[in-house]
Every structure is written in structure tokens, then in C-alpha cells.
Specification:
about 40% helix, alpha+beta, 6-stranded antiparallel β-sheet
């Protein structure tokens, strides 16, 4: 037997070993065989026989041997070439040598060697076209190497014309990794077994329970009897829906836990399933809307939201102009503007004029979301507004302000224009952004399991929320399964007996829309809404969001956006001096609101860490204040001494 060809072929998903002898796998456990099919054209069958054998090498690689045996015992071919492609990685292998390709291309010095070497890859034998696996004629390149598709090998031979009349591609070898076939068959079997298991486990019981629940919601006294009367087709459809839902839930869970780069722990996924919170897979991306524009990184499903009136047009333009300059001109995330009344043309034209290429949508708030619910006594609500106005409580007499707080607390994320998004950035009219934002905050949230982000925190006026914590405690008592055990609620209540008035300032927030859409938060909001505190008192959306987030999230899921400089009505956050922010901000970090007595951000740092740079800035601020106080005192003493000296001189002169 004449052995013409032997090669150890590397599986494309395994890296090559550090050896020049052959392609070998460095995986010591997994040995992937190759399944090979050899076809010999009729003109060769009379003079040759072919066989394939494969085996595992000592280090776990897969070796394969092709034997072409001459029936007469004489060599069949004087020149030959082997060209291969495995998932985009090509290799050219000769009888006496092997030449690996790096990233699909030859090194230049090897190309000339291959062209001139008579014993390795005679490229003159490459035909103009070859038959692909699908039977189609595909043109071939007459170059240093050629490949015709994934996993496709061609062996080209030049055979002396005196012996027979065969073309260069009379011997064709098609190679497929056997592991891929096994994975396909195994996967199909597992899907079938899983379907059967779910059919038996989730089928009839869940279907009957769903139908019983439906009758119970309709007020039927005997839901069990009604279930018995349900037609077989209805029960079968309910079972099918349950099976589909179960399969989808399991698939989504596996994706969240095992996707490369996923930030989620098993406890996060378990808790999210319990409270009806949708977690976003780390690889989820927004659909491409504009093919002529390429952002620095692919966009996730984020949106910038502004609640505004027609009279806020100029203030909205100021906010968007700065946000576009600092951030969105590089990313082009869409905008959604919401109003309880239709936006007029003036508002739309001014806002669109900020960036004509921006994606902007203008939505109308449903009346049901901006009006009194049926259980509110409007006479009592009016009396409460008058009382708070008489006592000088901020916004105490404003009726529209209360509707706005209620809407932001429990309805904005339900608007139809926001249904397709996972994350939102709330922006208000007449705000300022001080710093260039080079990182996509939406993508940061998605890749790091962050569900709420803030820049400023402060304390609420106690007179506006006298019974808010009492109602919160009622929710906690009635729904203990919704409360996360490792949550961040100690930031708003040390002992759960009273509310310390700390809250994130919600006129700036970047968060997960799914957090507010969750069953747990929806139940929390419904509890507050039924209590009437939005109208009988003056509950703001900032404390409501803050309490809700700290009850349902662990501290690491709440993020302090130190890199975003922000100002609203003189209360601001500015990154303290750090090299990363050099020449990127137009504000003084030492004068930031963060470390003042009115801010709750220091308490956040004390409880959950962080803020080292902010504390250093606070030390600098105090030193500067002490210097200024000392200089002021010295100036006063100097002026006093000068005054006394002048008075003494005048007295002596008059004497």
C-alpha cells in the first residue's frame, strides 16, 4: 500500500498547539473525530482504491489519514495539492510539509515558497471551477490558496495524460466535523424529550388552573364545576400555551445565566422570576434604523424621555442642545416627548430643529393616566391643597403637579411609544449637562446588571409625605415575597420604623423600564395609589421611585453616575477632579451638591462603598472654606485695627 497523504487536522473551535509538526488540539479532554466522505470519479475507480481512518492523538487532537492505493502498485500522481477551509480558517497541506494559515491569509514569505516548491501545492493544477457540495459550479481563484465554502476540501491532482484522461478534480473529499453532527442529533433528541416532559408535567394541571382562575375573576361561585364543562379543544389550547410559555421561560433563563459576558447571578434570575421582572440578555441590541450612521458601539434598546408642555419648548430646546452636544450626537438614541395635551407645531419644530436627523416621537398621555381615579374624594383633595398652600409647603397648592407625580410614579412606562424599549433616560426642560459623555450609559446598565441610576440625592420635605412610609409598610407586610432580602432599603430607613426622607432626585434618572413594569412594583404602586396620598398629601415620584427601587434591588444594581455632570435649578452634581475627567467638564467638582448637608449621597457611600474621590473633594472644600473663613476674619481684624488707629490719630490731632 502506498500512503500518499497524512494530516492532523485541527477542529476550528480549538486553538493550535505550539508545534510545527502538525495541527494539534491543546484540549486534553475533548477529542473530536472527523467524519470524511471520499468520492472517486469513475475514471479512477479502475486503477485506485481510497480509504479513510481517523484517531485521537495523545494530546487530545484529531488525526486523519487518507490512503490512496494503486491496484497496480505504482504511484498514481506525480503532482498534487490539498486545499481546505474550516469555518473560514484555510490551510494548504502538502505530502512532505504542512503550512497553516493565520487568520485566513498566508505570510508573504510562504507564498513564494509555495509557488516555487514542486513538492508542495502545485497551484497550476487548480481548475477554473469546481463542483460544490450542493452540486453547483463555483469559480475558483488561481492564487496562493483557494476555498469554496465551509468544511469543503478539494484535492487537485495532475495525472500523466499517457495513463488516462482525468481532470484535476477527479478526487473530491468533503469533510465535516463529526462533533457537529453529534451535537445536532443530541440537541434534537433533547428538545423532543423536553417537550414530552413538559407536556406531562405542565399540561392538564396548569390548564385547569388557568381556566378556574378565569372563572374566579368573573365572579363564578363554582369554578371547579365550570372547569369540567370546558370543551377538550379549549383545554388543549390552554395546555399548549402553558407548554410554550414554560419552554420559552427555560430558554430565556439559560440565556441569561450562560450567555458569555452575562452579569446575572442565579439569585438575580430566581428573584426576577418571582417578582415578574424581565432581565435583559447582555447581547440584546436595538434594531438598526439608520444604515447611513454608525455609532461607536451598537445601540441597545434605550430611549430618552421628556415630559413637557407646549410652553416648555424653549427650555426643552436648551436641555436637548446640551445633551446632543455632550452625548447623543455620537449615538443618536431616539427621543419620546409626552404631554397631557397634544403638542403644537411650534414645539415640534423647535425640538426637531435641535437635530433634524434625530428620531423624535411626540405622544399624548391617556386621560385615564392624568385624571382623578374613581376612589378619590376631590373635595377632600382640594381642601388638602388649600391647607398645604396656606402652610407654605412647596407645590402644596398645585393640582397639576400632583397629577404629574402620580403619572411619573405609575404610568409613564406604560405609554405605547415606550413599549419597544428596555431602558430610559429621563430629561427635563431647563437642565444642564456639564461633561462630555464618552460611554453609552444604556449599554453600561445592560452589561453590568444595573437597573437604576442617579446623579443627585437629597431629602424630601416631611410635610409632603406624612403617611408614605406607613403605606409602604402595609405593602411589605402584605407582600413579603416581593421584598428582596439583600436589598438597599436601609438607605431610606435604618430600622424600617420610619422614613429618613432620603431619595434619588428623579428629574434625572436612567433606569430599566422593566423594573417599573414588574409585578412587584405594580403592586407597590397600586397600594400607594389606593391610599390616595398623591392627592390627599403631596407624594412625589422621587421618594416613590426611591423606596420602590431600594426595596426591590440590591445595592450593586443601583448606580451612581459620577461621570455625568448635571444641574437642575441650581442643585447639581459635578465629577470631582480626576484625570479621567480632564478637559471634559465645565464645572467645579469641589462645589458639587453631593457632599453638602442636604445630600444623601454620603450616606449611600457609607453604606455601600464608593465615593473616595468625592470624600477627598469634600476635604478640599472644607479646607478652602476654613482658609476663606480665616482670611475673612483676618481682614475684619485688620480693618478694625486700621479704624482704631485712624480714630486715635484724629483724637491726638484735635488735642
Amino acid at each position: 500500500m502506498l500512503k500518499l497523504f497524512h494530516s492532523s487536522i485541527r477542529h476550528p473551535r480549538l486553538p493550535p498547539a505550539k508545534t510545527n509538526a502538525s495541527y494539534l488540539s491543546v484540549n486534553p479532554v475533548l477529542c473530536l473525530h472527523l467524519q470524511t466522505k471520499v468520492e472517486v470519479r469513475p475514471c479512477l475507480r479502475a486503477i485506485a482504491e481510497c480509504s479513510i481512518s481517523d484517531s485521537c492523538s495523545d494530546d487530545g487532537g484529531a488525526a486523519q489519514t487518507l490512503q490512496v492505493v494503486s491496484k497496480s502498485g505504482a504511484p498514481l500522481f506525480t503532482e498534487w495539492a490539498v486545499v481546505a477551509e474550516l469555518d473560514g480558517a484555510c490551510s494548504c497541506v502538502g505530502a512532505l510539509d504542512q503550512v497553516p494559515l493565520a487568520n485566513g491569509s498566508f505570510h508573504e514569505e510562504r507564498i513564494e515558497e509555495l509557488r516555487t516548491s514542486p513538492r508542495v501545492c502545485p497551484f497550476s493544477s487548480i481548475p477554473a471551477q469546481a463542483e460544490t457540495r450542493a452540486g453547483k459550479q463555483q469559480p475558483l481563484r488561481r492564487s496562493s490558496f483557494w476555498c469554496t465554502g465551509p468544511d469543503l476540501f478539494y484535492l487537485s491532482f495532475r495525472i500523466p495524460a499517457a495513463q488516462h484522461e482525468c481532470k484535476a478534480t477527479d478526487l473530491r473529499m468533503i469533510t465535516l466535523p463529526r462533533g457537529r453532527t453529534l451535537r445536532l442529533v443530541t440537541g434534537l433528541a433533547l428538545v423532543f424529550v423536553t417537550f414530552l416532559f413538559l407536556h406531562s408535567a405542565l399540561g392538564s394541571g396548569n390548564a385547569r388552573q388557568r381556566i378556574a382562575d378565569e372563572w374566579s375573576r368573573k365572579g363564578t361561585a363554582e369554578p371547579a364545576a365550570a372547569v369540567k364543562k370546558v370543551s377538550p379543544s379549549s383545554a388543549a389550547k390552554a395546555e399548549q400555551d402553558d407548554q410554550t410559555s414554560g419552554i420559552q421561560q427555560k430558554a430565556n433563563r439559560n440565556r441569561l445565566l450562560h450567555q458569555p459576558g452575562s452579569p446575572y447571578m442565579r439569585s438575580d434570575v430566581d428573584y426576577a422570576e418571582r417578582i415578574g421582572l424581565t432581565l435583559v440578555p447582555v447581547d440584546s441590541l436595538a434594531p438598526v434604523r439608520n444604515t447611513s450612521f454608525t455609532p461607536p458601539t451598537p445601540l441597545v434598546k434605550g430611549v430618552i424621555v421628556m415630559l413637557a408642555r407646549n410652553s416648555d419648548a424653549d427650555g426643552a430646546v436648551k436641555s436637548l442642545t446640551e445633551l446632543e452636544h455632550r452625548f447623543n450626537k455620537k449615538w443618536r438614541y431616539p427621543y419620546v416627548f409626552l404631554n397631557e395635551k397634544p403638542f403644537d407645531d411650534n414645539f415640534k419644530q423647535k425640538l426637531q430643529g435641535v437635530n433634524p436627523a434625530a428620531d423624535m416621537k411626540f405622544g399624548l398621555i391617556p386621560t385615564a393616566h392624568w385624571s382623578y381615579p374613581s376612589w378619590i374624594n376631590q373635595t377632600r383633595a382640594a381642601a388638602a391643597r388649600k391647607d398645604m398652600a396656606d402652610r407654605g409647603i412647596i407645590y402644596g397648592g398645585h393640582e397639576a403637579y400632583r397629577h404629574m407625580c402620580r403619572y411619573n410614579s405609575g404610568f409613564f412606562y406604560r405609554h405605547e411609544l415606550l413599549e419597544e424599549y428596555d431602558y430610559y433616560w429621563r430629561v427635563e426642560p431647563d437642565v444642564h449637562f456639564f461633561c462630555d459623555i464618552d460611554e453609552d450609559p444604556f449599554r453600561f446598565m445592560q452589561e453590568h446588571n444595573k437597573l437604576y441610576g442617579f446623579t443627585v440625592s437629597l431629602t424630601e420635605f416631611r410635610e409632603t409625605v406624612p403617611t408614605l412610609w406607613k403605606t409602604t409598610r402595609e405593602f411589605m407586610t402584605d407582600n413579603p415575597s416581593f421584598i428582596r432580602t439583600d436589598n438597599a432599603v436601609r438607605w431610606v430607613s435604618k430600622d424600617l420604623e420610619d422614613y429618613n426622607m432620603c431619595h434619588f432626585w428623579s428629574n434625572f434618572e436612567i433606569g430599566s423600564l422593566h423594573l417599573w413594569r414588574s409585578k412587584a412594583y405594580s403592586t407597590f404602586f397600586e397600594t400607594l395609589d389606593k391610599a390616595g396620598g398623591f392627592f390627599y398629601e403631596r407624594w412625589g415620584d422621587a421618594p416613590v421611585h426611591s423606596i420602590g427601587a431600594t426595596l426591590l434591588l440590591k445595592p450593586s444594581q443601583i448606580h451612581f453616575f459620577n461621570n455625568i455632570g448635571y444641574d437642575h435649578t441650581g442643585i447639581n452634581h459635578c465629577p470631582v477632579y480626576q484625570p479621567a475627567f480632564a478637559n471634559k467638564c465645565e464645572c467645579d467638582g469641589v462645589k458639587s451638591f453631593d457632599m453638602t448637608d442636604w445630600s444623601c449621597t454620603p450616606e449611600w457611600f457609607d453604606l455601600f462603598g464608593g465615593g473616595t474621590a468625592n470624600r477627598e473633594a469634600e476635604k478640599i472644600r472644607k479646607i478652602e472654606e476654613q482658609k476663606q473663613e480665616k482670611a475673612k476674619k483676618e481682614k475684619e481684624e485688620r480693618e478694625k485695627a486700621e479704624k482704631e488707629a485712624r480714630e486715635k490719630a484724629e483724637k491726638e490731632k484735635s488735642t
